[in-house]
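How a chain folds remains the central question behind the approach discussed here. The record that follows shows the chain in one-letter code together with its fold in token form:
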Amino acid sequence: MNIIQRFERNRVGRDFVVGDIHGCFDLLSRAMDTVGFDESCDRLFSVGDLVDRGPSSHEAIDWIAQPWFHAVRGNHEQMAIGVAQGRHDHDNYLRNGGGWFLSLGDDRQKLVAAVFDTLPIAIEIDHAVGRIGLVHADIWGESWDGFLRDMQSDLSNSKRHKLVEVALWSRSRIQAHQSGYPTSSVSDLHAMFVGHTPVEKPLCLGNVVYIDTGAVFGRSLTLINIADCVSAQAEAA
């Protein structure tokens, strides 16, 4: 499993991060046009959940193939991988928007799942504003470096599985916030971008920025220039 993918500083263009796409690639294309995205020098990072529920999930592997597009693995990609490997319930995936994938032949399912299986659990970007991290849902603990160190250490399969589950599925941080508990930042990073839990507008809990604004449910798709993330955090607070 690809745990972490690291990117050096982009010294010639801009870096953007996008919330959960869920097959709404038409919205993403329009958002990129709005910001004047330049494929020759800009980069686009995704917090995962490229597929399911939306109209164009089949386009995901074409986007993944683009040299300027980089995504972490979401729980919906993981469900597709599990179905192709015989480890995830078909009915459960169907209820979660996976009908497009289930309609594919076995060979095509395995091909698409193999592409999804190349996606890392985490992305780290060296950026002028500071070190940026991306995971789909959250990390275990409050230290980015500690989480990555644990993920890459000599763990048992069951312990690593638990850490991956947190990265792909956890809502503990935002649920604690919604229950009135104080929130803390993730150390070792300037900001950590996550998706998974739909919010009305980008929400900052410490330096953790939630950017799944529910595009597949008829709301807006959030696309943020990382250089503006300080002002974006201030606006969302």
